[in-house]
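Forwarding these from the shared drive since the link keeps breaking.
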Amino acid sequence: MKRLLGIVITVVLLFTLVIFVPASAADENVALGKPVLTVLNGGVAAAADYWRPEYLTDGVAQDTTNGNALGWAYGTLKELGVATDISAYIDLGAVYSVNSAVVVPMTWSPAATYPGAYEIYVSADFNNWTKVAEAGAEPKEGNATYNFDAIEAQFVRLRATSHNGVWADDLFYYNGFGDLQIFGTKVKDSDKALHIYKNYTGDLVTAPPASSDEALGVPTVWTGFTTGSLEWRFTFNTDISFWAINFPLSWGNYGAPLKFKVTKENDETVVAEKDIVRLGDGGFAIDFGKTIPAGKYVLSVAITDDTLAAEGQYAYYNVIGHATGMLDEEYCLNTNGTEIEEAGAVELFSSDDGRGFIKLSEEAQPATQPDTEPGTEPGTEPATQPETVPQTGDAAVAMFAVIAVLAMGAAVVFVKKRVF
């Protein structure tokens, strides 16, 4: 009877443990439907609507309800070599404990479209990044799943570091992804977000540039060609930190070499700089690989080759397009040898909350994000596994398990001492 009673109590306690201990929440694809921001250093967006950035997080390699949704694709200039620097940033919208990633190739031609190599990074603050997955140049077939120690993150960066040299035209190699899935459980809400701050309030004026602003009737910022100037200087003030500058509307001849340099307005200290080669007409973004704090700056965009195509005419030109509702000279100053009344359309990519462009006379407040130290910017973090973070519900399971063990021990003692 004592043995039977002990067995009954033990079974009841185990049954209670199974019923009342909360299970860990099931991991889900927390990237599904989340916004995607792409930066194509040395690259161009694939021209057709089949390959849009938002298709990277639609949950499928190809949306069968939308035959045009094939994934996200881009082109990289052949003459730049095998290495690429193409990134897609995903804002998960909250802080999650993430532990795995699934990279899905395009279904229509996976061998041709998969990049030669890529990396996946995650971050909780958009400043400190941890590499959680990488793939080399080996052939890839089917979905690639990467499991890693759980880490809290809100932002994801998918970075393609080389092309595969298969899908190409005369100028570009093309690569892409069908889908990127990130699995985890929600930890907490967040007030952070990826923001795009603009120096205009209206719409982009998409008419192509003429040989002069007067002929076109639309203000644009010209350098090169017959302007007599190879440099545009854009002075601005901001209350947010930023990590990239986007030019949503631009024209330029293929091969034009450009240097982008950001300096402090008061002492000309160089804060960031980058050299690129224009790939022809089209908007583009410059990712400086670091976070630049709030402050007053001068952006210099210079053509670095002064070759003449004819007397009084430079071989290269660069044009920054215009938008309606441009901020005036209280906010931005522009010169290309002479003062320009209105600026070209400029956008700042940031993870800070603020007004963005503020009046030049205002004192900028310190950035809410610290300036990124060398070695912590995306792409330089060593490939180490992050410290393990307990999954949701793990602590509760452990607590109830301890209680159950203690209760069973007490039951055994009770059975041994009970006299019938």
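-- next protein --
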Amino acid sequence: MERARTAGEFQTWGLLAFVFLAIVTSGCANTLLLHPSRQPVRQPGIERRVIERVEGDLEVWVARSPGAAVAPIGAAVLAFAGNADRAERIAASVAGTFGARPVEVWAVNFPGYGGSEGEADLAAIPDAALATYDALAHHAVETPILCWGESIGTSAALCVAAQRDVAGLVLRNPPPLRRLILVRHGWWNLWLLALPTALQVPVALNALDTAPEIDAPAVFAMSRADRVVPYAYQRLVFDAFAGPKEAVVLTRGHNDRMDAEERRRFAAAIDRLFARLGDGIDREKLNRWRESAALNGQDG
């Protein structure tokens, strides 16, 4: 009897301790995973737009690829940046990456970033991502929409693709957030901090929950030397993804630039993804762009 009562007390105190830790670590996931900034970012060639919402306005930056200057828009690209990056930079970067492929890029600053209203909060990201998709779909009627995500931005891209109609995805260094927190970072705190933190990640942002729900094609660019999201964790997302997929394995770290050979392979994979859209791109113009880019030490 005494042993049973002692075991019951132990379970009660254990439960109380877990509840206490859950309370004191409330918001811990936001602090660990989100690094917002508000300062102005000057980036030429992009246009600012605002999506008005009751929950707070969202700031979107729009850019067009070089190919969009000489051909009709073949696709719209909804881009999501990493946890310390900004929409201003990724809008211009993604537009440049598409090169001769004629696309219009919309990149959103999540709540708490840039000119988007509200506080930086993981729970606010899914609704913000879906609201941006809906605004883009209203703007780009009958235009296929691709989702592009980098690092934690891949979680938003997968969230959208699992709930909306997308023609394809480009994902770089995707983290399975809950698994990453629990397995990679749980041991040093005996999971007392890791478990409550992982539970604060919305299911809609957990790639291992959303990836199996998607049947659109995707290109995964995954870095073997990544210390932020180790390659083995990225492969978990790749393996869970249900749609047609292609892996471009990189030798660099999480935020490192691709070398010339990696850019070539990445560009070729995007070409194959774009071909699935039936975009009707002028291949002669694309080849001319490639020759010009090669001469300038670039790739697109």
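The first strand starts at residue 47 and ends at 51. The beta strands are 47-51, 58-64, 75-80, 103-109, 145-150, 168-172, 218-223, 245-250.

- D.
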